[in-house]
Task: structure prediction
Amino acid sequence: MTEYRIMTLNMLTDTLYSYGDSRFSRRIHAINEMIRANDPDLIGVQEMTENMLPYMDTIFEDYAMIGEKRHSRFLNEYSSILYKKDRFSVLKQNTFWLSQTPDQKGSKFFFSQFPRITTFAVFKDDKNNQAFSFFNTHLDHIFTFVRNTQAQVLRNLIMKHSEGVFTAVTGDFNAVPDSEPLRIVCSTGLKDTSDISIGSTLRGPIGSRANGNKPIDHILISDHINKYTLTKLDQKYSNIWPGDHYPLMIAFEL
Result:
């Protein structure tokens, strides 16, 4: 049996209103400590931007990164996958846009404020030579019907590209368990490991109340994986919050 530890992490984009410990240059110390303490094998990140990369040297000592920017006019975010470079080999990789034209860079549905993407990879675990598939995404934050159409595109991509012994999907879905976007994506033979028992994955009270104190960050895994442990990382590291979302991590053996 081989253990897999998978994390979803919203990095929180710096804005003009970010100050003090909310700046990424300060929060990266908490993120580094959190990663060291929890030792994930793979991390799906959201809201990562180019100006963060120079601060991530410590992470890049152990992890490599795949994924392309979403090609938006501003807040040009990545939804990248970080993976332990001494354990995994990349067999395939791509970035797709959650639009009517997934291969067209910068494309989006009309009512989506930003282009939304999914980063996809097929990895080979060098421990056991088994391949598996990984998708990481970040859905629209405004309209339910836009999230539903983006989820349909993601479902089609999962059905088309998944291969290997399991599939994992991480992301900020901006949607709670059992909502339509999650039902759509889980129709591909996946299960949502996030459930209402863990409470909100948003740290602030306003967003938490708006979502009924339910998680909007999710880790989906193949339905045949029956035993796993899900952890919500709801603490400070280096006396600083890593972001405005609580990261999630699952561990399972296969």
User: Anything to note?
Assistant: The longest helix spans residues 144-161.
